[in-house]
Design a protein that fits this description.
Elements: H1 3-12, H2 27-33, E1 53-54, E2 60-64, H3 69-74, H4 81-93, E3 101-104, E4 111-114, E5 117-120, H5 125-142, E6 146-150, H6 152-159, H7 165-168, E7 172-174, E8 182-186, H8 190-193, H9 198-219
Parallel strand pairs: 2-3, 2-6, 6-8
Antiparallel strand pairs: 1-3, 4-5, 7-8
């Protein structure tokens, strides 16, 4: 294979996810088609694509950054340590997980190797944009009342630019291109796990629960 052909194939695979969407736009077809996505290079090293999961009639889509190590292996979103934090916070806020839909802005696990370990690496703006058609399709199918952005990458996938979470936390914004679709801002549960000591983690967890209680009380 000549270099020109290799370069052509490489460029073709970086055109974004749009060409890989199925003709039938429903959750089962989308979940099957995402495994064949070559819209960016992340598929090359991930175990599998991890699509969203939850109620197809959810009022709220909970949007994270990308699958983690456990999600990459199991093929489901928010089933690792951050998912456990999310489950606990949802329960404390009186929100049933089976009533929401959880997904990520990027559908493949991005990581860097450290020996035998695979350590989380934040996706780039190009990778977030390349994966955007999958999120758009999920929104089109579910038709939610709003999206809960869990962290800055999730917010960036909606607003297109780096986003300050603390400045906009608990704010209810409108989607920039979908009139009437609400956007609620909070932290990613993984940020709680990164706190240095137990007191900090407990305090941040309580703040996260208060965010979700505000969501349930004011925007249910």
């Amino acid at each position: 294979m000549t270099k020109a052909i290799k370069d052509f194939i490489h460029v073709k695979e970086k055109i974004g996810a749009e060409p890989y969407l199925p003709k039938i736009l429903d959750l089962p077809h989308l979940k099957g088609a995402v495994q064949f996505c070559r819209g960016c290079d992340l598929y090359r090293h991930a175990t599998q694509a991890v699509f969203g999961d939850g109620s197809p009639h959810a009022k709220w889509i909970f949007l994270g950054e990308q699958p983690g190590l456990v999600e990459d292996r199991l093929g489901l979103p928010f089933v690792g340590p951050a998912g456990n934090i999310l489950d606990e916070a949802l329960k404390s806020a009186g929100i049933e997980r089976n009533e929401i839909y959880v997904t990520n802005a990027v559908k493949h696990f991005k990581f860097e190797r450290q020996g035998k370990r695979r350590l989380h690496k934040r996706p780039s703006g190009v990778e977030i944009k390349a994966c955007q058609p999958w999120l758009n399709a999920e929104i089109d199918v579910i038709q939610p009342k709003g999206i809960v952005c869990l962290g800055s990458t999730a917010a960036q996938s909606i607003f297109g630019t780096p986003f300050k979470i603390l400045k906009n936390r608990q704010k209810l914004l409108e989607h920039p291109s979908r009139k009437g679709l609400l956007i609620f801002i909070t932290i990613h549960p993984a940020s709680i796990l990164r706190k240095q000591n137990e007191d900090e983690r407990r305090e941040e967890m309580q703040d996260f629960i208060e965010d979700l209680k505000a969501l349930k009380k004011n925007f249910n």
